[in-house]
Design goal:
alpha+beta, Lipocalin, 2 helices, 8 strands
């Protein structure tokens, strides 16, 4: 009986590890317009700060349309009008196509950039997550 239980535990652990590895197969791969579509949460220091809407719709020289909420403060540069796939992930762009902030892709739903202050900014797919330690 103990041997069966041990085998089942080991098998479950292997399956969970395989699923975790499969979930991160996109690290370092450029973001495609189809997978970008939707709401993304902008986070810093573990806190959701604002949202940005990424679109698969072309927006002229800016690449594809991006619409940040008005409360992103200093985390996103002024003038974000679009986004474009980049070699290791994606970049937010100005209306003329100038790259304003490049993001590295860490997983299927996480992109990370470092802003001028040295702080990291994360883009996470979907709405803000409720954290157990949140007030």
């Amino acid at each position: 009986m103990n041997l069966r239980l041990t085998f089942a535990t080991v098998a479950a652990a292997c399956l969970a590890a395989g699923a975790a590895l499969a979930a991160d197969h996109e690290a370092g791969v450029p973001l495609s317009p189809g997978e970008a579509a939707g709401a993304w949460t902008v986070e810093s220091h573990g806190h959701a700060v604002c949202m940005i809407q990424l679109s698969p719709r072309k927006a002229g020289p800016a690449g594809f349309a991006a619409t940040p909420s008005g409360d992103c403060g200093a985390l996103l540069p002024a003038g974000v009008a679009g986004w474009t796939p980049a070699s290791g992930g994606m970049a937010l762009t100005a209306s003329n196509g100038q790259v304003l902030l490049p993001f590295d892709r860490w997983s299927n739903s996480l992109f990370v950039a470092r802003i001028a202050s040295g702080d990291e900014v994360q883009l996470m797919r979907g709405g803000p997550r409720v954290r157990p330690d949140a007030p």
